[in-house]
Amino acid sequence: MYTTQSKNTPINNLKLFGNVRVLIIAALLTALSGAVGKVFSIDVMPFARIGIENLPIVLAGIWFGPFVGAAVGFGADYFGCFLKGYPPNPVTTLGFVSIGLVSGLVSMYLFKKNKTLTIILADLAAHIVGSMIIKTIGLYYLFGGQYPITLMLMWRVPLYIGIVIVESTLIILLMKNKAFSQQLEKICNHGKLR
């Protein structure tokens, strides 16, 4: 978790599922990701689109840990599929889940002192594993091998590097807002808002 001062352990992150405020924010991030990803994105190729659908998932992972991030990724994919009216692809869903999981794990265990570097690495690692590898494999099988995986990667890798730059910048700017960070800290520490 990015802002909390409490012990940052997997068990403490699981306890966040019992925090009603965290659950409400996670539900909002899920809906935001599903809506932004399926409605407000630009299809560049059948297997690549420009959008920030993963930003809410990365935020959930960084803010609330890997378990909440993974749950938001799972819900976001299913909600987005429901909005568009097509069945979810299990491999793509695994990609969404891994984005939340990896961003949470990286932010929990790496570079705790340098928060800017933590955000950048969490976002980059999440997209390498989830978007560039797992989702590309899922899309390859979804399209029945119609597009060579090298062609897909040739488009998706630079696209997601650009998306990581935009997302990381937005997250860093958001987290530099002291009022926002203080409220997030209170929510993560069992919701003791004044």
- Oligomerization category of the chains in this entry: single chain
Q: Unreliable stretches, pLDDT < 50, 5 or more residues?
A: 1-6
Count of discrete alpha- or pi-helical segments spanning 4 or more residues: 8
* Largest sheet features: 2 strands, antiparallel
Mean pLDDT reading: 83
Tell me what portion of residues adopts beta-strand conformation. under 5%
Distance between the termini: 22 Å
Observed structural traits:
Arp2/3 complex 21 kDa subunit ARPC3, globular, mainly alpha, two-stranded antiparallel ribbon, about 190 residues, 2 strands, about 75% helix
Could you walk me through the main structural features you see in this protein, from its secondary elements to its overall organization?
The chain is mainly alpha-helical and 194 residues long. The protein has a single domain, classed as Arp2/3 complex 21 kDa subunit ARPC3, CATH 1.10.1760.20. Helix content is 73%, strand content 4%. It has eight helices and two strands; from the N terminus they run ααββαααααα. It has helices at residues 10-15, 20-39, 55-64, 66-84, 90-109, 115-142, 149-176, 178-188; strands at 42-45, 48-50. It has a two-stranded antiparallel sheet. A hairpin with a 2-residue loop joins β1 (42-45) and β2. The longest helix has 28 residues, at 115-142. It is globular and about 50 Å long. Residues 1-6 have low confidence and may be disordered.
